[in-house]
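Review session, final week

We close the course with one last complete record, chosen because it touches almost every idea we covered. It is Two-component system sensor histidine kinase DesK, a protein from Catenuloplanes atrovinosus with 389 residues. Go through it on your own first, then we will talk.
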Amino acid sequence: MNPLAWWHARSQAERFDISFRTSFYVALLALPLLFSGAVSADGDARAAVTFVLVAIGYTALVSLLMHAGIEHYLGRRGRPVRLLVAAGAATVLCAAASIVWFPGGMDAGPVIAGLTCSYLVGAAALRSLWPSLVVTVIGFLTLLVLGIVDDPADTVPHALSLLFGASMLFVGYRSSLWMLAVVWELDRSRTVQASLAVTEERLRIARDMHDVIGRNLSVIALKAELAAQLARRGRDQAVDEMLEVRRIAQDALTDVRAVVGGYRSAGLGDELAGARALLASAGIECRVIGEGRDLPESNQATLGWVVREGVTNVLRHSDARCCTITLRADAPDTVTLTMDNDGTRTTGRVRFGGGLLGLTERVGALGGALTADGETPGRFRLTATVPRG
């Protein structure tokens, strides 16, 4: 898979999440390097290799704890209690080993500081603040005691530096987690807004259908009941009433076809204004170039459907931040409508679903053509060209 296409297929929230996690995972990779640098002064190659391998295993464990902690903070899983206990025990054992194995050949302070920071990354991810603080303080005090045992002469400087570093890491990491949670919440809110916008459009169409056929159906019911009563009495007026029922039904059918076919729709200018408002309600900037109010009614109806379907696709199938709708006359007898948006989740050849196939038929009925271009990473363009008139 093309990495660039894969990246563009991710939503904004997913990209932020990936960047956030990757930065901390990469930072954890520095832990084995810290261990290798600390043991290099001792000169015991076998012990150094063993300790670095242990550090790699510890880093993998803390990485699992970090992942579980982030998922817990985002509300996707429960508290990673087992991982937290396992990582805590491993942290204490590694810190103790750094003192016992190399009592004279190395300074365990940097190693203990690295262990403290790596463990805090997992402990700070507990969603509730107080449990997170309690676990963090317990881990900090345990590692602080080990640091004092390693070098009693530097107790105060060691304690202050470790306290300052741990506090900054705790606050910074909690703030970063909060920001990640806010990004995902905004993404969910944006999805809900888009769904509500689509639902609002459906309700608008439903209201139009109700207005068109509701009154006619009521009249048909009354006329049919009257015709039935007249027929029971043997009155000739029953035939006239049924003919009237047929006429009203035919009128209602014509109105329904007009709504479905778009001939009873608002003008293209109104559709463009509605598209701008609909996209704005979903947090998408919409630029409209051209109005098309002077176009023939058939052009306005067809291009209005293109605008509706295009807006629906933007809301459903993209994480767009901006959309540009351009209406221009390429020639005296040709009109082109273009909808261009960013934030597409797929790249490559566009598959025409039911909506685009329906638009192709509508545009083709006027002798025009509809094209959809998704080859440019992160962008999608829908173009409808129809003859004027």
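Two points worth writing down before the exam:
The first helix runs from residue 3 to 8.
The chain has two domains: 3-189, 266-389.
Good luck, everyone.
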